[in-house]
Amino acid sequence: MNLNDATYISFSTFRKNGDSVETPVWFAPSIAQTSTEDKNSYYIFSAGEAGKVKRLRNFSRSRIAPCTVTGRILGDWHDSEAVILESVEQIKTAHAALVKHYGWQMRMLDISSKLSGKFNKRAYIKVTLKESLA
Fold this sequence. Notes:
134 residues; 7 strands; alpha+beta; 33% strand; 30% helix; Pnp Oxidase, Chain A
């Protein structure tokens, strides 16, 4: 299965000892598509204090693969670099991509997150593939 055809990707980050930790996550391709990097970039979000976010603060190395909601891998792994987005503009871009990709589901999750006080505690992450999929 192709990354862009998947509903979930397995996002793999690395511990200090080199072990990988895979997590199935929602994702959205970059909607900017203005540069080669954008065409090979995806956005994900997470709770701000989640393990994957903490691991990314140590190492930007990551990899992604299409998967099911339970994490069963459906395609090839792709090496990538991931960064936690800091600027308001970058976060708005990432959120817009996720809303475009998931529509009403993302909007409902946003409402739930706002009601529970978790919305502003999210971390948005940009994942850029090391090789082009084209």
